C-alpha cells in the first residue's frame, strides 16, 4: 500500500526475506542467524499457575515476527517480562535474555526502552489529561529539554523540539489522528487510543518494537494502511515483534510466526506452515476460521459443539498444565 | 449492489424493539459526537454497527444505554421512551451492555463478576452460573481468582459471560470479539447469533467487520456521528464505497493470495 | 465606612503579609508535586518545617546565616530523598499517607522534650534568636521606613471609597490576569506571559500602594521581609514557569497520567518523580524559612493544618497552572481575614459574642471553601476540560 | 465568707495586722493542714528571720503518728519533734543553712523498713523547707512487673484498636466505594461523642437508648450528607482531589460548629467513674469491656455483610468500576448512600464508645485520631475493610505498647506512624491489599 | 492533705454586699471604634484565644479585659479619655497565621496596650512584632521562664513557673510523698512547671518516677487517650501524681481512677484546679490538692467577672482561669497611662512597673482609688485581685501568692491556705 521509499537493507526485498526464513529451522526455539532478542529459560508463575515458561526463543533482526496463541497463553506476560514490567519467577534460577547483545536480566523497564526495545500495551495507556501531541512528543528519545537543568533554558532545546513536533505531525497524519492533535488523549475513542499508543511508541525510533494486539479495535481500512507503514519500517531496518489474533494481519505482514500455548513456545515457522499445522488449527484457529459464519447451518448444535470442543482444546492443555503444576 | 442511503425511507410494518431517532449526543457540552444518528432494530434482529475509529459507534451504544447524555432526539425501547434514563433502570427493563473497555470488575473474583451480572435477580444465580460455567469452562476453573489478573482475551470472555448472566431481551455489545483468539471469535459470533435466534435483539459494534457483516441481519456504517450507510450485512460487505472507506481489501487480498498458493 | 476601611486594610495587610508569601512559595512547590507530577504529598508542612528549623537551629547555634539557609535546604533535600527512595514506587494514595505520617513524625521530633536544647521543644525557637542576620541585610536601614511616601496621606488615611476603588482595581487586575492566562484575551506565547507579568507587577504595586501601614519598621515584620518574600515568590514562579513549559515539565505531567506508559517510553520515572519531589520540597523549605522569619519557629505551626491550607490554596488558584499557587494563597488568606473581620464587625453582638463570632467565621470559612471548590473545581486559573478525565 | 478571710502569709511589709489576722485564723488552717491539737500542731510560719522545716512521715499505706525525728543544725544543736496524727511534723528555726533531719527508728512500729532515714535540707528565711524521709511497709515492692505492664497495655491496645477499627472500617468503606479520602470522618467520630453528650448527659437519656439514638442520628447524618452533598458532587463529576478539599472544608466547618455549640472544652458523656474489673493483673473498666464487645459484634456483622451479601459485593463492584456497576443494574447512588449511612453510623458508634472509654469528648477529639485512622486503613491495604480492622488493631497495640517497651511516651503516635511507613516499604500494597497487574 | 476536708469552710458562692460591687447592669461593653487609637483614647488591644485548642481559656480573659475597661470608664476613663477594648483572635500554635494577622491588625490600630497572649507559643510568635512597633504587650497567662526579660515591651501579670512550681513542690514534699510521678502536657506550660516541681521535690530528698525531665513521657496537647500514660505512671509506683495539663484532666482523672489510683494523692496546678462538679461523679477528686498562683480572687470579683461576661459576651463564665490576671494587666496599663499623663504605648510601658509597686508606693486596691492617689502625686502600688507583687526588672511579677486548694466531695476546689512564693 503505502509505498514508502525502501531503505537499502537487504531485507527490504521480499524474496530475500523468504529465502532467509526458508533457511530457518522450524523447531520451536531454533537458532536464527542474527538474533536481536535471545531469551533463555524465562518462567513466570502466578500462585501455582505457570503463565510463561519459555525455554529458548530467538527473534531475527530486521524481520516482522508474529507471536500468536490462544487467550491466556502468556503472550502479554511474556512481553511484560522481557520489557522489565514484571520479574520472572526464575530470576534466580538462570533466566537470561539479551537484546542486541545487551543483557537485560535486571534492567528496569525504562532502560529496556532506552536500549531500543519499545512496547505497547494491550489495554491502552493514554495519558488522559495531556493532548495527543504531547503524548506523541513524550515518545521521543534523548531530549535535551528533559534534563532538569537544561530544561530551564529554552534555546537549548528549542530546535530539537521543533524537529520532534514535525515528526509527530507526520505520524499523526498517518495514524489518522492529526485532527485530534490538540485534543486531550482522554477523549479518544477506544481504537484511537490504540493508534495513539502505537504512534507514540514509534516516536522513539526503536530498534525493535513490540506491539501487543495493535490492530484489535482498529478499523480494517486503517489497519491495512498501517500495516504498510509497519512494513516500510521493517524495510528501514526495524525489527517488529507483535501479538495479534487477526490472522489476515498475521498472514499479510509477518515473515515469521511463533506460537505460544499454555506459556510455552510450541511452534515456529512461516505463517502458512504454522497455520496449516493441525495442532495450531485445532487449538487456536478453529475449523471454521475461514468459513463464512453467515450461514445459519453453522448454528446447528453439532457445529456449535464442534467449536466448543475446539475451545475446550484451547483450554485443555493449559488445564492439564495447571493440574500438573498443582500435583507437583 | 444497492447501498441504501440514509435518507431513503425504509418502510417496515414491524414494531421496532429499540430505536434511536436522530440522536444528538456528546461528552462535553457544545461538542456533539453524534449528529443526528438513527438506528432501528426489529424483533429478533441482529444489528451490526461498523465504522472508522472515532466515528461514534461506542458513543451511540452509550447514548442508547444512558451513559452519555442525549441532547436531542429520542431513544425508544418498544413503546417506551428511554432517553436519558438511568442505566440501572434500563437493566431492569432487560437491556444488557458490554462496554468496549473496562468491562470487568478487576478486584472482584470471577464468580462475583458473574453474580454482578445478575444483580437484580439473585435468585436465579445458581442456575445461570451453572449455565455460564458450561459455556466458559476456563472461567469455572478460576472462579475464585480476581478478574484483574485475567489476560485481555479472558477478560473479554468474562465480560460477555457477565452480560449473558442476566438473559437480557436486548443486548448491546461493543466489540465483543476484540482480543479473542480466532476460534473464540467464531464462537462468540455464533453464540451471539444463537442467542439472537432465541428472540434476543442484538446490537453489536465490531471492527472485525467482515465477520460481523456476515452474521448480522442488518448493518449500519457510522461515520462522523451519522449513520452513513445501512443495509443488509451482505449488501454492505460488497458495497465498493464501504469497502473503500472502511473495510479495506486486506482480508480479500490475503485470502486470494493464500488461495493462489 | 471606617469599619469597612478597617476590614479592607486588614485584608490588604494579609494579602501582602510575608506569611502569605511564604505559603505561596510552599504552594508553588506543592504544585510541582501535586499539580504537575500527581504526587500526593501531604507532608509539605514537613518540608517547611525542615527549612525553617534548618535555618533557625543553625543560626541559633552560631552558624552563619548563609550556611543556615543551605542547611535548611539540605535538610529538605535529604528528607525528600529519604522519603522518596522507598515511597515513590508506591501507589499515589500510599504516598499521601507516608508523607503526612513522616511530616507528623518530624513534628513530634520537633516538639519532643528530649531534644529541647537543640530544637527548643514544644515552644520552639524564638525569632529573636535567628532573625538578626537577616534583618541586618536590610536595604531599608533600621527603624521606621515609609516605602511609598505619599501613601499614608493620600490613600490609607483618605476616604474609604478611595480604598474601595483601589480594591476594585485590584480585582479587575486579577480578572484580567485570569483572562490573559486562560487564553481568553487572544494572546499567546510570549505576549501572554508578558501581559501577565505586567499585570502582576501593577497589581503588586497597587497592593503596596494601598497598604495601610506606612511606618513599617524594617526589623521583624516590616518592609524588608515583605520585599524579600515577594521577590522570592516572583522568582519561584518564574523558575516554575521555565521548568514546566519545557519537555521536563511534559515528562512530569506524563508521570502524573500513567507511570507505566512513561516507563515504556524509556523514561526513568523514579528519577523524574524524585526530581519533582526534591524541587517541590526545596520550595517548601524556602517557604518555611520565610514563614518563620517574622515570627518564631514552632513545631506545631507547621503541621497538618498548614498542609491542608496549602492544598486549599493550590486548588483555589488552580492546580497545574503557573500563577495559580500565588493567586490561591493570596485569595485564601485574604478571604479568610475578610470573612472574619466582616463578621466580627457586622454581626450584632447580641446575636453572638466575640468568641462565637470568631468561631462562626471559621464555619463560614469552611463552608466557603467547600463552595469554592464545588463551583469552581478547576480553580480560578485551571482548565475545566482537564477535569473531565480525572481518574 | 470565710474564704475571703483566709490566711495570707504575706511577707515583710505586710505588717502586723496581717500577722494578727493570721494568728487568729491559725486554728482554722490547722484544721486543714494538720491534725487536732498536738505537740507540733501549731503551724510553723516562716517569717523574715524565721525558717520552717516541715514534712510528713508516711508509708505508702498512710501517715504515721508519733514518730520521733531529730533536726540537727550545722552547729550540732539537736531539736526533737514528733509527728502528729496526720504524720505531719515541723520545726521553726532561726538560722539559715543546712539541717539534717533524721528519723528515730526506735519510735517506728516494728514491721516497717526505713528506706531513707535522714536528709539534709537548706533552710531559708521566709520559706518552709520540706524534708522527705522514706518509710515503707515490709510488703512494699518498688516496681511493677514488666510483664504485667505489657499485659495491661496489650489489653488497652486492643481496646483502642477495636475503637479505631469501627471508625476506620467506615473510612475504608467510603474510600473503597468512592475513592474519596474523607478528612471529615474525624468530625463524624466527634459527632458521635457530642451527640452522646447532648442526649445522655444533658438530656439525661438512658445510656443504651441514647446510644442507639446517637448511632441512628449519625447514620442519618451520613445519609443526609450524601443526599445533599456528595451525590450532587459526584453527578457534577468533581475530581477526587477537589472532593478531598471539600471534606477538609467540611471538617473545618464542623469543628467550629462543635466549638460554637458545645464549647471548646472537654465534656463527658456520663459523669460516673467507670467501674473496674480485674483479671489477674489486668484491670479494665466495665465500659471498656462492653465497648469492646460491641465493637467486635458490629465489626463481625459488617464483615459478614460485606463478604456474604449481595449489597456487600455491590459496594466493591461500585468501587471497582462504577460505570460497569450501573450497567449491571446496580443503583450506584443507592449503594454509595448506603455506604455513607453505614460508615457514618459506625463512626458515630465509634465516637460514642471512644468518648465513653477515654472519658470525654472535645471538638477536636476525632481530629486527634484522624491520622491513626488513615494509618490503620493504609496499613491494612487501602479499601479493604478487613485490612482496616487489622490495621487498626496493630495501630492500637503499637500506640499503647510502645511506651512500655521503652519508646519515649511522646513518640507513641510517631512510632505507630513509623511502623506504618516501614511496613509499606516491605509490602507496598498494605497487609491485605493485592498488587496490580500491568499491561 | 488528708485532713477532714469536709469540716472546711464552704466557699461562699453568694456575693457579699460588698461596697465596690456594682449591680450587674452597670457593666458596659466598650468596644473600640475603628478609628479610635491611642492618640485619643485608651485603646486596649487583646490577642486572646477565641478559637483553637486553647479557646476555652478565652472567655475569662476577655471578661477580665472587658471588666477592667468597664471599671476604668466607670471611674471616668484615663486622663479624661475613654477606654475601649478590641480583642483579636490569637488562634493556637497550629495555625500561626491567625496570630500574625491579629498582631498586624493590632499594630495598625495603634493600641495603648495589648493584653495577651494566653499561650507562650503564640506570645513568642508575636512578641517581636509588638516590640518592633513599640507596643506594650502584657500577657496574663504566660508562665514560661524563658520569657523573663524577653523584651522591654513585654510584661506579664502571671507569675513565672518558679513561683507556683516551688509552692507545689513544697506542698507535695511536706505532705511526705517521696516518689512523684508526673503526667505532663508537652508545652512550655507543662514542662516548665514540671521542671521546677521536680527540682523542689528532689531538693527535699524525693525522687521522680515518671514523666521526669528528659524522659520524653510528655503527651502532646489535645491527645485524647491517656491509658498508656496512666498505666505508665502507675506502674512506676509513685507516692503521689502531679497532673500538669489543661482540659485533658477531664479524661485523665477517670482513667487514673479506673486504674485504681487514690485521688487524694493527686496534685493539680492552675491549669486544672477548677470546679469539676459537672464533670465527675461525686467524691472522685475528694482530697486531691491543687495550686493556683494569685490569691483566690474573692467571690465578689468572680461574680463581677461573670456579670460582665453576661453583658459583654452573652453568657456567664464557667471558668475563671486568668481572669484576674487579665483584669490586673489592663488596670495596671491604665494606671501607667494615668501616671504618665498620656495613653500612648510608650507611656504605658515606661510607667508599668512603677504603678505595680516597684517604686514602693502606697497600696491601693481599685482603679478609682489608685487614680485618686496618682492625682495626689503619690507613687502607688496597685494590689488587684490577682495578688501579684510589683513588676521586677525582668518585667515579671516579683512575687505572688499561691493558693493551695483541696477538692471536696463535690469536686469543687476550695482554698485551704495561701503561701507566698517568689521567683
Ligand atoms: N498478575 C497476575 N496474577 C495472576 N494471574 C495472571 C496475572 N497476570 C497474568 N495472569 C495469568 O497468566 C495467563 C497469561 O496471561 P497473558 O495476559 O500473558 O495472556 P495473553 O497470552 O496475553 O492472552 P490474551 O491473548 O488473551 O491477551 C493468564 O491465564 C492470566 O490469567
Ligand atoms: N470521554 C470523552 N470525552 C470527549 N470526547 C470523547 C470521549 N470519548 C470519546 N470521545 C470522542 O468521541 C468520538 C467518538 O468516540 P467513540 O468512542 O464513540 O468512537 P468509536 O466509533 O467507538 O471508535 P472506536 O472504533 O475507535 O472505538 C471520538 O472522536 C472521540 O474523540
Ligand atoms: Mg495479552
Ligand atoms: Mg468504540
UniProtKB/TrEMBL annotation, chain A:
Domain ABC transporter: 37-287
SMART domains: AAA
InterPro entries: AAA+_ATPase, ABC_AA/LPS_Transport, ABC_transporter-like_ATP-bd, ABC_transporter-like_CS, BCA_ABC_TP_C, P-loop_NTPase
GO molecular-function terms, A-Z: ATP binding
Keyword Transport: yes
One Pfam family it belongs to: BCA_ABC_TP_C
Keyword tags: ATP-binding, Nucleotide-binding, Transport
Protein's recorded name: ABC transporter ATP-binding protein
Annotated source species: Nocardioides conyzicola
TrEMBL record, chain B:
Domain of life, per lineage: Bacteria
Entries under SMART domains matching the protein: AAA
Keyword Transferase: no
A single MF term (Gene Ontology): ATP binding
Residues in ABC transporter domain copies: 18-249
The entry's keywords: Amino-acid transport, ATP-binding, Nucleotide-binding, Transport
Pfam families reported for this sequence: ABC_tran
Keyword Transport recorded: yes
InterPro entries: AAA+_ATPase, ABC_transporter-like_ATP-bd, BCAA_Transport_ATP-bd_LivF, P-loop_NTPase
Similarity section: Belongs to the ABC transporter superfamily.
Protein name per its UniProtKB record: ABC transporter ATP-binding protein
Automatic annotation (TrEMBL), chain C:
Residues that span the membrane, as ranges: 21-43, 63-85, 160-181, 193-211, 223-244, 276-294, 306-339, 360-381
Sorted UniProt keywords: Cell membrane, Membrane, Transmembrane, Transmembrane helix
Subcellular location: Cell membrane
Membrane topology reported for the UniProt record: Multi-pass membrane protein
One family name in Pfam for this protein: BPD_transp_2
InterPro entries cross-referenced by the UniProt entry: ABC_transp_permease, LivM-like
Protein name per UniProt: Branched-chain amino acid ABC transporter permease
Native species: Nocardioides conyzicola
Upper lineage: Bacteria, Bacillati, Actinomycetota, Actinomycetes, Propionibacteriales
UniProtKB/TrEMBL annotation, chain D:
Position of the signal peptide: 1-39
Annotated transmembrane regions: 157-176, 206-225, 237-258, 289-307, 338-357, 369-399, 411-430
Chief place where the protein resides: membrane
Localization (cell): Cell membrane
Record-linked Gene3D superfamilies: Immunoglobulins
Entry's family note: Belongs to the binding-protein-dependent transport system permease family. LivHM subfamily.
Identification of the protein by name: Branched-chain amino acid ABC transporter permease
Phylogenetic placement of the source organism: Bacteria, Bacillati, Actinomycetota, Actinomycetes, Propionibacteriales
